[in-house]
Write a structure and sequence with these properties.
heterodimer; A: about 600 residues; alpha/beta; Ubiquitin-like (UB roll); Alpha-Beta Plaits; Rossmann fold; 3 domains; 19 helices; about 35% helix; globular; B: alpha+beta; Glutaredoxin; 4 strands
Chain lengths: ~600, ~160
Amino acid sequence: METVKITIDNKIVEVPKGTTIYKAARQLDIDIPVLCYMDLPDLKIEHKPGGCRICSVEVEGRRNLAPSCSTEVFEGMVVTTHTMRVLNARKTVMELILSDHPKDCLVCAKSGNCDLQDMAIKLGIREIPNQDIAEMSTYRKDFSPSIIRDMDKCIMCRRCETMCNEFQTVGALSAVNRGFYSVVAPAFEMDLEDSPCTYCGQCVAVCPTGALTEVDHTNKLIEDLSNPEKTVIVQTAPAVRAALGEEFGMAPGTSVTGKMVSALRQLGFNYVFDTDFAADLTIMEEGTEFLDRISRHLKGDKDVKLPILTSCCPGWVNFFEQQFTDMLDIPSTARSPQQMFGAIAKTYFADKIEVKRENLVVVSIMPCLAKKYECQRDEFAVDGNPDVDYSISTRELANLIKRANMDLNNMQEEDFDKPLGESTGAGVIFGATGGVIEAATRTAYEIFTKKSLDKVDFKQLRGMEGIRQAEVDFDGTTIKIGIAHGLGNARKLLEDVRAGKSEFHAIEIMACPGGCVGGGGQPLHHGNLEIIKKRTEAIYREDANKPIRKSHENPYIIKLYEEFLGKPMSEKAHHLLHTHYSDKRKKIIYMK
Amino acid sequence: MSRIKVELKKDQVDKIKEICKAFDNAEGELINVLHKVQGTFGYLPAEIQEVVAQELTIPIAKVYGVVTFYSFFTMLPKGKHPISICTGTACYVRGAEKVLDEIKKVLKIEVGETTADGKFSISCLRCVGACGLAPVVMVGEKTYGRVAPEMIKGIIAEYADQ
C-alpha cells in the first residue's frame, strides 16, 4: 500500500494514500471539530459533504482553508489545525450557522444531546454578531405518527439524507430548493406521512440538532398514570434494557433489566410486563407457520411461498408494504411482539384482572420510532380502542425516570410481574440482528426433529455483517437462513427473492443497524457504533444467563395456550396474533 | 415551489420513457434527461418527475431536489409570452430590480409564476450579452433595452391582445 508522510501541528504521521486530513489527524489524537461529517465504518458509510466548513484547517502553500473531512493528504503536506486564521474562520462559520438557527435551546427536545450546542460550547461562542438584523429562514413543522420535522433547526448537514437514501434505500428525503431556502424534505415538500418514510428513525438517530425528533408521549403517560380510573400496564422491549443505562452514565453494554423494572414500578405502573414474553409467543406462531410452509415444501407442494420473512420489525413492514407490494404474501403473518402483547393484554389478561378494555392502558417501551406508528394501525384496534395505546422510546423513558427524581444507578433489582412478564432467553435475543431467527430455530428444530437440542447457541446466525447466511442441520434436512439488517441490505435479499434467485427457506430482516439495539429510539450513539456492539453483547449475555432458553418451554406460554388460545395457528390465535399486509404505496401523483 | 396537477396521456408517458431510454436510464444523466423532457413539455410537473424517477430508478425526492435546485427547471408552464429580465451585474446596477418589481406589480405574479390566463410568466436570467443596453428585458424572442419601470405597462400592452 502506497503511503504518504505529512506533518500536522508539527507532528509527523505516515498514512495510506487517499486518507483525508481529518482521519490522518485522528491517528495523532488531534481531534479536529466536525459537524456535518459522519463516519460509520461498520455500515460502510462515510458522510463527508464538506458543507459546514467547521473542520477547516490551514495547508501550507494553499491559498484558502481546506475542509479536513474531505481533503486528501499528499506527500509532504504541512497542516496546522489551530492557527489564528483557522480559529477565526471556525468561529465565523459557527456564528453564521447559529444566526439562522432558533435560540430556543431551553425547551428544545435535543438540548443536552445536541451536536450543534456542543460545538457552540467548544468554540466558545458568546454572541452572534448582527443577529438583530439577520434574517432567519422559516419552514412549517411537519408532524407524523412517529417523527417530527422542524426544519428551522436544520443545518443542512444532510446526514439524514445519507441514512435514508444510502443505508436504508428508502428515498424519502432529499435536499430541495437552494441557498437560504434549502431544506431536507420529501418530494414536493409533502408531509413525511405521505412520503415513502418507514419511520425507522435512523434520520433522527444521526440528526445533530433538534430538526428531527420523535413524537413524545411522556406527558400523556404521566396523565394516565395519575388517573385512578385507569389500570396502566407496561411492556419493555428486549433492546431497551441493554441501552437505558447509558442515559444514566453507565458503560454501554450494561444490562439494567432489574433496575428498570423497579423504576417502572415506582413510576406507578400497575403491572410491569415484558415484551420478551410476547416474543416467545411470536416464536410459537411464526415458528409454527414456518414449519407448516417448510413441511409442505418438502412434500413437494409447489404453491407454498418460501422463503418466509420475519415480520417483527415495523420499519421493515412499512418498507415492504411500499416497495415490494408484489410480495405481500411472503412475510410471516405473525404480528410483532408489541402487538401480540397488546392483543393478549386486552383480552386474556384484562379478563383475568376483571378490568374493562377501555380502562386498561397498555404502554410499550421501545427502542424504535416505527412502533409509535405500528400501534396506531387500524388493524390493531377493537372498536377504535388500540391494543397498545402508545409507545415511548428508550430516550423518553430515561427522561421520565429522571423527571421522577430517580437515578437508575441506585435502584434495587426487581422481577417482572406474572403472567406476561415471564420470558426465555429466546425472547431476549429478539433485540439483536439474527436473534429472531435463532430463537425460531431453537423451537422449530425441536418440533421438527422431535429431538432435544444439546446446544441452543447458533453462533453462525450472529454477527454484525449487513447480510449473513447460514445453514442449520435439522437432523438431515438442511435449512438455509438469510439475515439482513438495514433496509438497503434487506432490499438486496428481497430483489433476489423477486428474481427467483433466492435459495433461503427463511430470512430475518431488521431495519436498523445491529437490529433493535441500534433502533431509532435508543440513546444516541453520536457516530460510535461500538456502543451498538456492546449492547448486542449484553443481549446475548442475558440470554446465556436465563434458566429457560427456548420459547416453547416458557411455562406461561404453555399455560396461555392451554387456558386461552388452544394451539398455535388456531382460529383464536389467527384472530388475535396474526395480521395481513396491504399495498401502501403513497398516491402522491394524480396519474392513473 | 408551487405546482399544478396534470394528467399525462399514454403517448406523453411513452415520450418521457423514450427520452430516459436515450440516456440509458442512467441515474447520472438525470440533469440531461430533465433538460430534454422540459424541452419537450415546456415544464416539469410532479407527474412527469415521477415517471423520470421510475425510469431512472431513483427516489422521486432526489428528482424534485434537482428540479428545485436549478433555476432553469420549472414546475409551472411558461406563459405564451415569457418575460425574462436580466439581473446580471450590469443590468442590476442600472436598475433591473426596480424594473422587475414593476413587472411583478403589473402582472400580480412572482418570479417563476405564470398569470392565470396563461399569457405571461416571469423569469430572471443572468446576462444576455447586451450590457450596453442595460437594463434588458426580453418578451419571447424580442429584446427591449434601457428599460425603465415606466415603460413596463406599455410593453405588456403590446402583447395584451395576442
